[in-house]
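Let us begin with a simple case.
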Amino acid sequence: MDLQLSGKRVLVTGSTSGIGEGIVKILAHEGANVIVHGRNKQQADRIAEEINKKRSSISSNDNGGKAYVAIGDLSKDEGAKEVVRESLKSVGDIDILINNAAVYVNRGWTDATPNQWAELYNFNVLIAVRMIQLVIPRMKNLGWGRIIQMSTGEATQPFAFMPDYAATKAALVNITVSLSKELAQTGITVNTISPGIIVTHNVIQFYRQTAIDKGWGTDWKEIEKHILTEVLNNPVGRLGTIEDVANLVAFVSSPLASYINGANLRVDGGSTITIN
């Protein structure tokens, strides 16, 4: 299927590792010109180089997109402005914004202070607000755009632990609905994508430590079985991959998804208990 993303200009925040890295790579494969964003220039340069090297090696019939880099701290107003400025220098405008950048800390109700809640809200919610406010005027001028917030199943079905993280991700789901109404009939759609447990480097590290604490062993397949039986099961019977998420992001970003708006789309194998 041609997703009609060739030539689209995409900024993916927090795309120097994990799900964000997977998203920029699949979008570039579909022909989009992507901005790799993060605070680690070495990591961003590595990913951009991998994308561009792959593009230069493919046949002339396969129009892979180019990758560029924008480095900046989105937790500050000026940092967000600088990232947008650098992105515009590279690609001229922004058609698609993927708000993926986020921070999570494994802490509970008794050891997360109110100040830490506020700090996490700035990182996980206000960075999205900053980027949205910076790109909306440009998308309105284009008469077309896509904004996607990356949330989590915890926004709908939180655990007892990490309550501050779940609350920030729930805020993104709420923002999506409000913003989709604000941008009615502008050609811009706004959606949320909520992954379940996705096997990234950080998730593997986290659950390997959990496995040590709980005596699950060291074999990843065995650890995954314990996660599915003791942490969060799903009808599919496996944990998610980065590609599971990136493929959905690519479709929702595309012109083919023009009738999907204000939605919270789950990629969790059915682990979230809801009929919506």
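The second case is a distinct protein. As before, the sequence precedes its structure tokens.
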Amino acid sequence: MNPQVASEDNPYQAMQARLDLASERLGLEPNLISILRTCEREITISMPVVMDDGSVEVFEGFRVQHSTSRGPAKGGIRYALNVNRDEVRALAAWMTWKCAVVNVPFGGGKGGVVCDPFKMSKSELERVTRRYVTGIMDFIGPDRDVPAPDMGTDGQIMAWFMDTYSMHKHAYLPASVTGKPISLGGSLGRIEATGRGVMLCAREALKHLGMNPKECTTAIQGSGNVGMISALQLASTGIKVVAISDVHGGLYNEKGIDLAGLRKHMKVQRKLDGFDGGDRISNNELLELEVDILVPAATENVITSKNAAKLHARIIVEGANGPVTANADKILDDKGVFVVPDILANAGGVTVSYFEWVQDRMSFFWTQREVEERMERIMVDSFAATVDMAQRFGESNRIAAYMLGVDRVADTTRMRGIYA
């Protein structure tokens, strides 16, 4: 069975449809399903900010906490013009299932500010960030809700976030946020974590299917932190990266992309334009390339019922959150595509965020090798548990991952009971 939703571009409806199917397969009681379908808390704030030219612009900000049954809410903050409440709700819920799939003691949260960070000065970004933190101050903290970077945000923004929170609390509280610079309590290996997790899932998928990485090709949609590091990590295993893209389009070279050269170019130009290393293609064309592994690592809803049948990849490893719509699931299943779902494939990031939170709480820090070894063990074990669940219940990897995560959240919710 595969879930279908009326509004295919609504990620929150897609999440709920998959949750409902996983809950049905698990035989969960209706009252418990009602709890899991609903976000615990949703915060919307209006933030007047003085811009560099002296004008005042009012920004809208969100923070959604889907579940704190297994621990503090955990999830990134994205700065983008298309941020909306349902997107943040879906991302928060995905974080709940993601943390449960890799079995780290967090719940799910997510935040966003409606803005274009690429058109704002550094000082404007700082003022927006500090105003946002102040607006959600009463609902966050090391034991309540621990934010992290996401699209449009980075370590510098997390540093401002941590500083603002600490100033209000009159204490140095690095565990209030993750994804910070190393000098402020960040963890070694955090920047590479999501991309490394994508590589580990791709490696395990190839092992499971009996495919040789040195004979495989991959296309990466996205060249930001997740996309670029995924490409570099996959290439390190012998897989040939033949295509990569950004928001403006893609680059294709059947002999392989010069990733080192492209990375240097991107650091200066911040876009693919101007890099002479292959033929220009569109993002839609990249998705439909004849490659062994496709990694959608940009944004949600890029593989839909309209283009899923045109894909040729044998394996899809979801580096982004929600890149495949619920209505596309059945099409990919019928084609025999081996999908490593987002709540498993990109969970390397939250796993190392958990490590950062633990290190900050202890004031004792691990080496990068220790971080990577611990993360690899968790990702490999979680991949195996998901595939085992899929085989035992005759379900897709996606629904199996949901079943694994939902079952763990349901168990803690049931044991804690309902406070009245």
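The CA atoms of residues 78 and 219 lie 25 Å apart. The chain has a mean pLDDT of 95.
Keep these points in mind for the review questions at the end of the chapter.
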